[in-house]
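Suppose a colleague, Dr. K., hands you the sequence of a protein chain of 145 amino acids and asks what its three-dimensional shape might be. Before reaching for any lab equipment, you can write down a predicted structure in token form. Begin with the sequence itself:
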Amino acid sequence: MKRNWYKFRVKYSKVMDDGKKKKVSEEYLVDAESFTETEKRANKAATDLIGTRDFDITAISREAVSDIIKGTEAEDNHWYKAVVALVTEDDETGQKKFSPQIMYVNAEDTKEADKLLREHMDDSQVDWEIKSIAETKVLGVLEYK
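The predicted structure, expressed as tokens, is then:
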């Protein structure tokens, strides 16, 4: 089964440390077969994570994710979106072709994300270049078990 990745945003009122309620928006990645399944899984995940059904799923969008790289899971980790270009050479023209791949990396900081990404890509049979690594608002990745 080909994995399709979707990003969804959930908005709800969160009780802050000072006791005040604040509207917050959180993003999550989920692998699913369709938008309908994504919405179903998003509703279940949001209910489980928030502990109430008082929320709105405000956005669902398809994400072209080729790989998920998990570091040592810690609460202060962040999800980074990395763009890695696979480099191939055209036999006829000799020109380099770049095929961008999007990977999400779970790490403490950008430096660790870079390290984990390089370790992951070391086994690659083709040349590659890291084009960018940027912190995202994604708080979690919900994969099929």
